[in-house]
Design goal:
single chain; about 80 residues; mainly alpha; about 0% strand; rod-shaped
């Protein structure tokens, strides 16, 4: 399909240079670049979707989730016991 696009002069010069060095046409270079950009965009959208599962429950006796220092100490003692 034929279309018209407007590119900044330095960008067009660089693209033509890369195409020539690669032995491909400017059209092929631009098609490949656009295809890769669209694939990356799709992949980043999929990667951004994170879902967390939450459950209701209670902390064990002696565990204060508001006291991070005590919680860390409790976890370290549990690791040492293993």
């Amino acid at each position: 399909m034929r279309t018209t696009i407007h590119l900044e002069d330095p960008l067009l010069r660089e693209a033509k240079k890369v195409a020539a060095e690669s032995g491909i046409t400017l059209t092929a270079l631009l098609s490949d670049a656009l295809r890769e950009a669209l694939i990356r965009r799709k992949a980043s959208r999929k990667a951004a979707a994170v879902h967390f599962t939450t459950v209701r429950g209670k902390a064990r006796p002696g565990v204060d989730l508001d006291n991070s220092a005590a919680l860390l100490d409790l976890m370290e003692r549990a690791d040492d016991a293993r």
